[in-house]
Amino acid sequence: xxxxxxxxxxxxxxxxxxxxxxxxxxxxxxxxxxxxxxxxxxxxxxxxxxxxxxxxxxxxxxxxxxxxxxxxxxxxxxxxxxxxxxxxxxxxxxxxxxxxxxxxxxxxxxxxxxxxxxxx
Length: 120
Hints:
Elements lengths: L9 H22 L3 E3 H7 L6 H9 L3 E3 L2 E2 L5 E3 L3 E6 L2 E7 L15 E8 L2
Antiparallel strand pairs: 1-4, 2-3, 2-5, 5-6, 6-7
Helix pairs in contact: 2-3
């Protein structure tokens, strides 16, 4: 038996176009520095030393974005509020801007600390 290819319907074609459009828009946002993964932001801003540490913190549920627990691939943008739970306490900060790379001196300009709580 030979298989014949079935042509996609008009609805399927429309869905494919929408999906491709969303992929393009998302790629543009990444390229233009509008959004970034939370694990990468924590590394670039030097809040955490390495991206693997950021990823592990997300996997253990120690990172919340806008009140929700965040996975490492969570996309963030300027204005988001991030809460980071350490063994020594909690840090809550607002993201001011997104940059792919930044010098050590300028890293703190990417965020503003809202509150710091120490567990004692």
